[in-house]
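Supplementary Methods S3. Input chains for the assembly prediction are listed below.
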Amino acid sequence: MSTLKVDNLLNTAGNESPISVPGAAKAWVSFDGTAGAVSVRSAYNVSSVTENASGDYTINFTTAMADANYAVTTLGHTKLSANGDQRVLGFDEGNTYTTSAVQITNRYYTGASFSGCTHASVAVFAS
Amino acid sequence: MSKIIFTNSDGGVSVVHPSGEVPINELPAKLGLTDYEIVDDEVIPSDRTFRNAWVKSGATVAEDLPKSKVIAHERRRAARAEEFKPHDEVIMKQIPGADATAAETARAAIRTKYATMQDEIEAATTTAEIKTALG
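Predicted structure tokens for the full assembly:
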């Protein structure tokens, strides 16, 4: 068995992101969408997070995806009221989904209005 | 860290929060923005009560009064519905007696409370007055 030890992997253009490793996320971000100002905790291949409205975010990629056939997984959490509102962070009808950005929304489980999300995690997988 | 603000297609304010991977002065071109402002964090209001009523005013963010009133009324209706719930359940069971009478009395008080709040919201001339009305 061989062991591969490296500090950095570069793509063919000599850049670190996004490298093409099957199974590895091409972009990911963890952010707080409710603080006084939305804050990005950590990210990879994400240049910025745009808050369009309460609970409505666009994740902007640093390096665009090759096509828009990528997969997105999301995880969101917010508990603002005593009864523990259930929210769904995901892709809503009308949201944009392009090679350079993906728009996600945090909606009440009951289908009502959007709401800010304290812990939002988004990962993008692409070929 | 600074932010970028711009007016979005809904007329509201979009706030761009950089991750640090790309210098903020390079982001507008990357995002295709032409009409925008790079502002200090302090420009973004910390009070998000009327987040969806934010409008860009030069290099500042303001709360639009009519939009704030719409949001306030939505919250008023939602709060009223929550307060009605336990009394509605009593009345729904249609069991004659003291409980039903008390529920009707409580519902009347709730109606009055929120009718007053509705008037106060409509009469407000500032968003601060709306927030006061909401309690």
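Residues 27-125 of chain A form one domain. Chain A has one domain: 27-125.
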